[in-house]
Amino acid sequence: MNQWLDDRLHISRLNDKFLRKAFPVHHSFFLGEITLFSLIVLIITGILLALAYEPSNSLVVNTFDPGTATKPNLVPAAYHSALKINAMPFGDMLRRTHHWMANIMVAAAVIHMMRIYFTGAFKKPREINWWIGMLLLIFSALTAVTGYILPYDNYAYNTVKVVYAITASIPWVGDWVAQAAFAGKFPGAGIIPRIYGYHIMLLPGILLALTGAHMLIMIKQKHTQPQYAKRLAYKKIVGVPLITQQTPIMLVLALLFTGLVMLFAAFVPVHPVEFFGPPSTTPINNIKPDWYLLWVFGALAIIPSFEWHLFGGLIGAEFVGALVLPGIVMALMFAVPMLDRTTENQYYAENPTNHPVRLAAGVAFFAMMIVMSVAGYKPELISSGLLTTGNANTILWILTLLVPAVSYFAVIGIVRGIRALREADERESLAHAHADD
Ligand code: HEM
């Protein structure tokens, strides 16, 4: 059989080129794989959900609460199909697994990115994979946001209203872009089919293409390796081959991981569509995005309201807070491989404490994202009495700048301390060695 296939498809060449690739054995290297498994489970659960979901905002009678013959209870077909999926055997479980997996995928990608950043794995020759990874992160978040809109309950309706307004806030071309992206003026008749197309075809297609490129580049360039590989065989690839050893490890991990997420989903419900009901004129106060986009909401919350008219266009706080500031943050992240001027890193995952400035800058950046996410809760901070309408913006701005600055210098101080201890240790062992001689 093998020979038969080999004569036709030259499988052995594939085997030599790809399937013998050595994978480093280290827990931190599973983070990228967990992101990959999440993407696969999302695609499988998404296909199953798509079999029962109706991508339309046309009104249909709500069979769960039909109303009367003269006054039928009409709801969007998409919303109705979400209720129907919940009522199907395992339907709710499918929605939960899909939802939690999306959160885990973004979380795993963020932690994976932190591993890459703190160990210098983004440096030459791996800059292209850092940039592709950034795109993966952005498109994962967009895919999740479009997914939230699909059940088309009042929460989703209000969310898409906010996203539409943000898109329309782009100076000069905003209205046109928003109408092109959301199939007409909000809430257009074609809004759900359009978002559905993005969520099940365009965005997953982009994610799959980017993931494919990410993997091929990683195979071509080879992993950075854990420090122990240096001691075992200097500048040689140390690890287990994809076939036959790494694959069973990955399969076991994938099954265990999926099982755990399903167990979690069995106990922790997701967003209750029936609680919010179909879209209505009742606004929902304090709409919040998922945790990974809260920082954008924070930026939007603390930017002072202003309007600046320029050549017939309007530059306002919404545009600056929701698009310009996050754009600057993203640009900074894209620029990481250009900002780090230390020597290239062909082989080994670096010890973060050997690069204190990079370590401190990363921690400061992370601290800033957390403070900005907390700023996303500005209305709640005011209503709880912790802040007042008068001082909220000033205090949140001070914290947004101060906490990262303090974190930066604290990390530099701690790393200096650790290095001083390490050097003292080394001096001591050297002195002992000389004494023994
Ligand atoms: C969102 C989907 C993503 C998937 C499915 C994914 C998957 C993977 C996998 C399986 C690996 C090999 C295992 C490992 O090193 O952990 C890897 C390596 C890598 N990833 Fe990702 N990744 C994603 C996002 C990102 C992000 C957000 C970044 C950074 C901005 C990134 C940058 C890299 C780099 C530079 C490598 C090579 C690491 C090395 O050689 O040590 N990836 N990725």
UniProtKB/TrEMBL annotation:
Gene3D superfamilies: Cytochrome Bc1 Complex, Chain C. The chain crosses the membrane at residues 29-53, 100-118, 130-150, 162-183, 195-219, 249-270, 291-311, 317-336, 357-375, 395-415. Residues 1-227 form the Cytochrome b/b6 N-terminal region profile domain. The keyword Heme applies. The keyword Electron transport applies. It is a multi-pass membrane protein. Keywords: Electron transport, Heme, Iron, Membrane, Metal-binding, Transmembrane, Transmembrane helix, Transport. It comes from Deinococcus aquaticus. This is Cytochrome bc complex cytochrome b subunit. Pfam families: Cytochrom_B_C (PF00032), Cytochrom_B_N_2 (PF13631). Residues 229-420 form the Cytochrome b/b6 C-terminal region profile domain. It is found in: Membrane. InterPro entries: Cyt_b/b6_C, Cyt_b/b6_C_sf, Cyt_b/b6_N, Cytb/b6-like_sf, Di-haem_cyt_TM.
